[in-house]
Amino acid sequence: MLLELARLWPAYPLAFGALLAAGAYLLVIGARLSWIDLRTHRLPNRIVFPAYPVAGVLLGTAALAGGEPGRLWGLAAGGALLWLFYFAVRFVYPAGMGFGDVKLAGVLGLYLGYVDWILLLWGTFAAFLLGGLYGVAMMALRRAGLKSAIPFGPFMIAGALLTLALPASG
Fold this sequence. Notes:
Elements: H1 2-11, H2 13-40, H3 45-65, H4 70-92, H5 99-115, H6 117-140, H7 153-164
């Protein structure tokens, strides 16, 4: 996403502004959701649900104003696919993941799918890797056991943000 911003700046100022606003919005809600999830193990609908249209409009504007309407497909499909993947994980093992994580996955999928399909995969992998490392560290410190619940939202957000900072493959 950083390289995309650099590419858009000189030639497409409206697209640059929309993508910058979308990134700033993700940072703000990501920080807020992470804080709430760490404290309460919940991802409130009042924050997650409005993120769908806000991200959709900002990323859609960036795609259209940047002359790349094909990115609309990427953001819509990315959001749907990541939501479906997390829903399947929740369906298979409901005790392992909350439905708030499923809803958040759709929002993160919009961002990752907008930039690049491979980032959708890397962002998902990074979330599970970071969450797993945290769980192992907590068990090593004897602060958690195999059945302990950990808030997964912060790791989903961190994985997406780290991945969005990477250069796209295409």
